[in-house]
Amino acid sequence: MRKDLLIVLAVALLSACASSDDGEPERTVVGGTLSDEQSYEVPAAEAWKAVEAALEGSEFTVERRRRDDCGGKIVARREDGHRVTVTIHAPERKAAEIAVYVEPADQALVRAVQERIGAKLSLKKARSDLFGETSLEASYEIGLEAAVTVVLRACRALAFEVVVQQREKERARIEVRDRNSPPVRFTLQQGEADPSETRIVIATEKTPEGGEKDLLRRVRREVERHLFPASE
């Protein structure tokens, strides 16, 4: 009896191994979760925005966000109950690995989410090439209203003239300029999961003379000097 049982188990094991070797190890299923990972030549900030945009709309409800310097994680749920977890890992700053996990396993949904992310990143690159814009982005533990005040203070310290100032409930836009540099635009977005956090994007136009990144770094340093004043 025991010998027969061992034979049955051995045959079943061989059969399972043979059926799993189909020559297409493109996706893995573990515990009912389907996963897929893609690499993109973009920094973590751009990858994060693309993932957020891919999970926006009525189809998904974002349940949790966790962000750090090397990427982060966003968890969303679709109306039919599927749970989508997207992780972003960008240790080299200029390249990001984006992994999509879907539970229960759904290959079509995994592929659809990755395609949406890829499309958003391609659109981002196309817009950047078209409009010739350079930007820096960072998130800070400060409320939106206080962040607006800090940005305006920093602009005054740099002798910039404020030409546009728009304020909405969870978002603000400021544009400044001076005689010697192209306009600098600030977009401030209150954190959805944590209202005490604000994402600040500083952008300017590319010019034939160059120097845009140096300008943005100088502006960001001044903003952070007002955000984190040295203790006396």
How do the strands line up in the largest sheet?
1-2-6-5-4-3
CATH topology of the largest domain: Double Stranded RNA Binding Domain
Which architecture of the largest domain would the CATH scheme give at its second level?
A: 2-Layer Sandwich
Count of spatially separate domains: 2
Low-confidence stretches: 5-31
State the CATH class of the largest domain. Answer: Alpha Beta
Summarize the model shown.
The chain is of the alpha+beta class. Helices cover 37% and strands 36% of the residues.
What would your notes on this structure say?
By secondary structure, the protein is α+β, with helices and mostly antiparallel strands. The chain has two domains: 27-130, Sirohaem synthase, central domain (Double Stranded RNA Binding Domain), CATH 3.30.160.110; 133-227, Alpha-D-phosphohexomutase, C-terminal domain (TATA-Binding Protein, 2-Layer Sandwich), CATH 3.30.310.50. 37% of the residues lie in helices and 36% in strands. The protein is built from five helices and eleven strands; from the N terminus they run αββαββββαβαββββα. The strands form two sheets. It has a six-stranded antiparallel sheet with strand order 1-2-6-5-4-3, covered by helices on one side. Strands 7-11-10-9-8 form a five-stranded antiparallel sheet, with helices on both faces. A hairpin with a 3-residue loop joins strand 8 (161-167) and strand 9. The N and C termini lie far apart (84 Å).
